[in-house]
Design brief:
This protein is mostly beta strands. The protein has no helices and 8 strands. The protein has one domain: Immunoglobulin-like (Sandwich).
């Protein structure tokens, strides 16, 4: 199975927006039915979860449950036949104290 190039982004929300919750979002991927997300804080894996993709094959992971702090995220994807990709390159983000605020760390 081809490796997927995931383009990740965190929805960066400011107090003036109408949104209250940041999400981890992946662009739509044809044929993808589920994802596994791995979340680290420091060197410790704090969560690994598998969830269904959106109808268009994209990922949407709610970040509301995470406390203020810095995190590292990786995703892998599976198609309907159960073939899994490798984990994506990890990326770091910081959730600030502003409701709904998140910032990607380059």
């Amino acid at each position: 199975m081809k490796k997927f190039l995931f383009i990740f982004s965190l929805v960066v929300l400011f107090p003036v927006t109408i949104f209250a919750t940041p999400f981890l979002i992946c662009d739509p991927q044809a044929g993808i039915t589920q994802y596994t997300v791995e979340v680290k804080q420091g060197a410790a894996v704090i969560e690994t979860a598998t969830f269904a993709s959106q109808a268009d094959g994209s990922a949407k992971w709610d970040l509301a449950k995470y406390a203020v702090g810095s995190y590292s995220f990786r995703l892998k994807a599976a198609d309907a036949k159960g073939w899994w990709s490798d984990f994506s390159v990890p990326f770091d983000a910081t959730k600030g104290g502003i409701p709904g605020g998140a910032r990607i760390i380059p």
